[in-house]
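User: For a reading group we're discussing how well predicted structures match intuition. Take MerR family transcriptional regulator. Before you show the prediction, I'll give you the sequence so everyone sees exactly what went in.
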Amino acid sequence: MPIPRDPAEVDPRAPIFPIAAAAELAAMHPQTLRQYDRMGLVVPGRTRGGSRRYSLRDIEQLREVARLSTEGVRLAVIERILHMENEVQELRGRVRALEQELRAEREQRPGARVFATSANGAVITLRSGTRVRRQTDVVLWRPRSEE
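Assistant: Thanks. Here is the predicted 3D structure of MerR family transcriptional regulator, as structure tokens, for the group to look at:
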């Protein structure tokens, strides 16, 4: 894998920092990072030899833990917050992937604009301006015009 020349090209989830560097970047003691790992709060990647490797995302989370902790938030609550933030990140990624699939589908079928279903449940793609053939067919979806 080639080394990115632009820092923006670095995958924020790539485990690259050893514990000493991560601790310095997060302004924490390495033992604190080990404790958070044992608790499951911020769990870094591991090398084949078992050494911890932290990603930019991990360091961002460590900083967030420190900020919330200094505001008096309990670690159990912080853990829940981080879990929900991770879930939101995963869902956003899934939405982006689905949007890309939808765009690709629209590009493959530029004339397909309206969908209907027949009485037996079969989905029918209708071209723009096509009327539904039977009274039992129901229009399911009509996208907004793209202007």
